[in-house]
């Protein structure tokens, strides 16, 4: 609550700001990668949530393009599955909003329809690694988890041989590098440019495959940048995405950037994404009518 983002609300409520926030927000400790109960250990807390929740927004993600495969796969793919399973136990749920990314379409270009990704689908059609006349590779998500488990076991075995503890072994520079390279290799094998878009795509597949009658909206924003207007123009926490170039230009360290001035940048202000999320939930949320899914 100390972030600059809240300065407008803080100015409106003054000393009563924290009381105002806690009347509206109740933090619950959990972990999307922590199983179908989302790492919420206390049964009474889970039951309470299942009884009162009418909307769930899944915005949790590992967003590094080249993050370790174990982290990306467990958060972006298994985490999405866990959210769906938790949501199916919510008795009053009207909507599950799953925030994905526009880049789940792989290396596609031109006008791309916002159609759901199907389980087992890959982006290898026309990929230089495949026979252009042959069918695209079939993606087996559980096989990816099996491959990851075997890789982690091997890393643990290698560390045991050198007397390193299993916890420290996965923090070893070589192990981290190996897991990062593995993610990129698997992504490119199936037609995605990086680990992030690949694991987010698998997350979408899992949501679509396991939702049953759950009312679901999948939102696919592009590159999220600083706010346009709300709560004030120009807010962005930290230095992200294109900020490095903007800051560099502002400080005179970058004098130009190669590009085509006739092209559009895949950039959207953060507050426009939030507004779209609220509109999507208001438009598609409905008690008991969950036989549909929408992709924005």
UniProtKB/TrEMBL annotation:
The record's keywords, sorted A to Z, are:
Lipid biosynthesis, Lipid metabolism, NADP, Oxidoreductase
Q: What class of enzyme is it?
A: oxidoreductase
Q: Which residues form the Thioester reductase (TE) domain?
A: 17-277
Going by the entry's taxonomy, the superkingdom of the source organism is recorded as Eukaryota
Give the reaction(s) catalysed.
a long-chain fatty acyl-CoA + 2 NADPH + 2 H(+) = a long-chain primary fatty alcohol + 2 NADP(+) + CoA
One MF term in the entry's GO annotations? alcohol-forming long-chain fatty acyl-CoA reductase activity
Gene3D superfamilies in the record: NAD(P)-binding Rossmann-like Domain
> Which protein family is it in?
Belongs to the fatty acyl-CoA reductase family.
Q: What does this protein do?
A: Catalyzes the reduction of fatty acyl-CoA to fatty alcohols.
Entry protein name: Fatty acyl-CoA reductase
Name its species.
Picea sitchensis (Sitka spruce)
